[in-house]
Amino acid sequence: MSGSGERRPLIIKRKRVQAAAHHGGSWKIAYADFMTALMALFLVLWILSTASPSQLEHIAEYFRTPLAVALTGGDKTTASTSAIPGGGDNPTKTDGEVRRANVREQTRSSDEQRNLRYLRDRLQSVIQSDPQLKELRSQLRMDFSPEGLRVQIVDSDKRPMFELGSDRLEPYMQKILRRIAPVLNEMPNPISISGHTDALPYAGGEKGYSNWELSADRANASRRELIAAGLSPDKLLRVAGMGSRVSLPNTQPSDDVNRRISIVVLDNRAARAIEQQERAPFPEEALPPAIDDDGPMAMAGQGSSN
After folding, report:
1. Distance between CA 200 and CA 207 in Å, rounded?
2. 35 and 137 housed in the same domain
3. pLDDT tens digit string along 150-198?
4. 261 - beta bridge partners?
């Protein structure tokens, strides 16, 4: 032991406690976004479960119009019916969608389809609100045909719409036509009326009064009743008798349901097609030469031989 009396320095070692490394919190943000989206999905499903069928159709029709078309005011009849276009850089154009062009030409615009669906809903509400018409629901059929909204009033053995073999309307038929006439006036679309019969022939066959005349007479009787109930005569574009040539699907030509009146609220494309067909010029080549007592008349500008 040294006698110098020196003291050794006291060294104290303290252990430094470090906090655990941070593992990041981005997963919390992703999880919160996921829960928010899941809650929104459940809310949408709950709202859809409480919506009526007509409301669901309107919602579906809304989402058929692409957002780009709605924002740019594009033509809904020529743009893609999907938010993801079939080709091209612009969803409002038809580049790359040549395959679908013919299909779109045969379909009506979303606005017109929406109006026709509104008219169908109005007709259904009128039928539901009237106790007498409500009993006739089984004889009233509404659907969408290639020409537009079709309302068919079918016959039955228990409750015929016309007297047997006649164009005289029964009170049931008069009631139906009088109630739907004001509703049909709510839209500017023209109307086509066609009469149909079953295949049971008249005793004299088609040489005399037949199903052709009966179907046409019943269509005209329905036309007169609609006009008497307030339908504008200018809305009528076509009234025709189809005889027994067009039967309802999954029926026999002799079934009573084929005795019916079909009222079609025409879309713009079908109305134009009918008007253009009627206004189409008759080709001169198809005209037979005029004949007088001496034979065929000379052509215009050449004069006659006399």
Report:
1. 15
2. no
3. 999 998 878 889 998 899 999 989 999 999 999 999 889 999 999 999 9
4. 153, 195
Secondary structure class of 119 (helix, strand, coil): helix
How many Cα atoms occupy the beta-carbon half-sphere of 139 within 13 Å? 26
- What's the rounded Cα separation, in Å, for the pair 100 and 160? 44
Q: Using CA atoms, how far apart are residues 80 and 69, in angstroms rounded to an integer?
A: 9
Spatial contact of 258 and 203, defined as CB atoms under 8 Å apart:
no
- 274 & 186 share domain: yes
**Confidence band of 20 (pLDDT split at 50, 70, 90):** low
Of 135, 103, 146, 142, residue with least CA distance to 271: 146
Q: Which residues, listed in sequence order, are joined to residue 238 by a DSSP beta bridge? A: 192
Number of domains the chain is built from: 2
Strand 236-241 and strand 191-196: the pairing is parallel
Averaged pLDDT of the chain: 77
Interatomic CA distance for residues 277 and 193, integer angstroms? 17
188 falls within a domain: yes
- Tokens, residue 196: 């149909």
pLDDT digits (tens, 9 = 90+) for 213-248: 999 999 999 999 999 999 999 999 999 999 999 999
**Residue that the structure tokens 């504008």 belong to:** 232
Contact (Cβ atoms closer than 8 angstroms) between residue 67 and residue 120: no
CA-based nearest residue to 76, from 44, 113, 41: 113
Whole-number pLDDT of residue 305: 40
> Is residue 229 within 8 Å of residue 177, measured between CB atoms?
yes
Range of the domain at 140: 110-279
| Residue written as token pair 């007088």 | 292
